[in-house]
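A common beginner's mistake is to predict each chain separately and then try to dock the pieces by hand. The better habit, illustrated here, is to supply every component at once so that their relative placement is modeled jointly.
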Amino acid sequence: MAQLGQFALAIAFIVAIYTIVASLIGIRTRNDKLIASGRNAAICNTIAISTAIFSLGYLFLTNDFSVAYVAAHSSIDLPLHFKISSVWGGQEGSLLFWSWILTVYSALVIFQNRNKHRSMMPYVTSVLTATSLFFTAMHLFVANPFKVGAIQMPNGALSLFRPTDGVGLNPLLQDTLMVIHPPMLYAGMVGLAVPYAFAIAALITRQLGDTWIRTSRRWTMAAWGILGIGILLGGKWAYRELGWGGYWAWDPVENASLMPWLIGTAFLHSVMVQEKKGMLKVWNVVLIVAAYTMSIFGTTLTRSGLVDSVHAFAKSDIGGYFMAFIIVTISGALYLILDRLPYLKPDNQMGSVVSRESSFMFNNLVLLVSCFAILWGTMFPVLSEWYNGNKITVGAPFFNRVNVPIAIFLLFLTGVGPLLAWRKASTNSLKRNFLIPAVIALVSGIPLYLLGVNHFYAWLSLVMSIFVGITIIREFYKGAQARSYGTGERFHEAIVNLTMRNTRRYGGYIIHFGFVLLFIGWSGQAFSEKVRLPESRIGDKFQVHQYDMRVEEMGVREGANYAAQFARVSLYEYGKKIAVMAPEWRKYGGRDQQGTTEVAILSTLKTDIYLVFQGSTDGVSGDFTIYYNPLVMWVWIGGTILGIGTVIAMLPNRQTPGKTPQSIRTKESEEVEQAV
Amino acid sequence: MKSKQLKFLVGSVAILVALVYFGYQGFNESMSYFQTVPELYASGDQAFERPRIKVQGEVVKGSIRREGGATVFTIGPADFKPPEGFVPGPGTHTLQVRYVGKDAIPDTFRDYASAIVTGNLKKDGTFEGTFIQAQCASKYERENAAGVTAANQ
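With all components supplied together, the output reads:
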């Protein structure tokens, strides 16, 4: 099977070169047969890479430890689903996984547009396949997942080596979330390659209207949504698995996934300006090139060991190749943009400062500043070492100081932007749309403060959440009311039909509402508390806010592939028993007998009680740490809403002919005119 | 320049200036030197003055112990075998750390783990840590890498 995989990679390499050559020559010489041949070759590339990754999967399932990658990431007793996830659990496999997603996307794009965009598609195919070619070269020559293990004999010769069992998967990664999180990040990051390919094709063919944007819009949405959810799932994994009580630490690897997402967010918004007003054409191309580059850079950052990270990834020499690829990508795109500048002139002038387009502009400005600050902070150790030999790192305070105000400003724009008119919003419309929500939000700020929200940013974020939440709910309410009045539909039907008939607008609102909930969850972080309780004994009691805890039991038990020390702790709220928490401290066999904490978490809408047990050394006393984390659950709820909104925004608008009376149609379209 | 453009420019510049200022504040609050143990010793007396240093080293086997509320351990070069009557210090490129931080010690922290400790150097030559990051013990993987070199087919 390893030979088959290796062979498939070699085929993919040749086929990819042929795809690019055939597509480019085909379009230059207007030879339709050659173009079709290039298209088919691109599909072959997909088949070849799929063969490679399924071969690797087979090697994992059959415990073929003669292959070094399998031996290093799996073991006989590893449960089936973790054997599958081990395929992308390490360096070589994760790069192959990247390739695979890319080629599958390429095939989908080719199929989707088989009868469309005839002049653009050969270039789209070429750009996507060129990226795939780069990765295939990496698999073949730098990070080959099919290498067999070998051992050096005393006489210096190499001999094949097949260990009887593999090293196993790091216990921290033996978590279902880790089966989903990395593929989602990759699926999101790789997805940005599609709009990028369309942008480059548009530049080459000088078709710089909004065709490339409209054609790739769903891809952009999907990539953005999947990446966002992937990032949140990573946070959830960290929260429940790592035992430090939080879900985000501004670690370089986290930042690596956040940066392309931030630029993607800017892109999703600024393309609307191009679609509606024909402006920001250069900017949009620059943004998508930047987003794609960032996703490649993010992959580099996580995979090259360029920056020290708590993620224990292998240091390797892939960094240089990736940087070279990035430089080629950027220079090529830059050349094309400069050369095509005359085709990128705006059709309109910027409107007033209080207008839809300007809200998009400020949205873009701060998103890019945020991304730049994160890049700067992440790369600072490397930069400072180059500059004067001192490696200097910056920590969470730097990232928070910059990004918290940016985030709250963005939340503000989320509420205001969608309701501003293009060109210039009238004072009347401002009053009509914002006076009530603003007053309610500010008034509710007073009880919030009295209830103990005395942290400025947390208070501002909550007040802003109320403001934005109300503007969004009002939009649905007003729309549904008008619709049910006109059509006689019941109110809840009207809400559904309203949404389904303008999915992009209302899906967008739902996404925005997801963010409101995320901000509520994030605000809770300002009030997190942590209590360390070393050497606690059975019968000991401790208290955090309205919660009392009592240690009931400590003991040991044997798990499937680990031994655990456990504790049982009763949890009382206002004196009433509400739960028994059972945190554990586990030692896994195999690998390197790493100890891991199994946190016990009691989640409610109000707060999380997060209990860490770090085992007992003497059998009678153990170490506990309690985290009191208010509102965390809203982060996960917000993330779910975000996902739902993204799916809705991607659905085609439902047409319901005949059901909408003329009066309503005009009223609605007026609103849409004013709002969209 | 038209007044509209001027307004945009002023608005954008104001936002940027504020953010740069916040970034500067945050930088001062959190910047720390990132050094290995020998680099720490090489920076001489300066090391005592720096408010925040991140020092990286491998946890010396058998050195982790409890001292009241603190965890005391030694970090040093990879695969360091402490000799009889060993005292940590510049001679052996090893450093004694007293961890007094509030956070629970990470799961990955143990003998042979590569640890990054944030804190500062005390006059008595020990390092007072307030935060620990640890990468999974690399011993097994290193042995694996040393003993099993991979060859292409």
